[in-house]
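G.,

No rush on this.
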Amino acid sequence: MIGGELWPQKSPLPFPVKVGKRIRARSRVVSLTPMKRGLEVVSEVSVEIENSTRLACVAEPVVRLYF
């Protein structure tokens, strides 16, 4: 059986997204740490706004998978 937990480590919201704007989210794995009976995965998710140089959000969610 696999279970999991998720919580944000960092999630600043530096720039608001206006209604009707298109966004794109990109994700990359920052670290993968073995734990007793599981794994901890830290990733970085950045949300871009179309035709904007600023990011809408950069988050670092932490996921723990147990098996």
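When you get to it, here's the other one too:
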Amino acid sequence: MDNETSNRGMNQAFIITGILIALLAIGIVGYYINDANTNAEAQGQGFTPSAPPSGEAPPGKVWSYEHGHWHDAF
């Protein structure tokens, strides 16, 4: 009987370990799929430069199309 009880315990340990590994694998795959979707959405937004406000630039300033505000010229 001891041998049979020991085998049941080992079988339960293998089943629990297998379930934990499967859950870990599902979590890792889900993380990478979600990360790939997030990156694709961010890349699809593209870059839209902003036009400078009307009128003259403030002295010593240049318009940054990338940032949408004035920067020091030097």
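DSSP finds one helix and two strands in the chain. The helical segments are 2-45.

Enjoy the weekend,
O.
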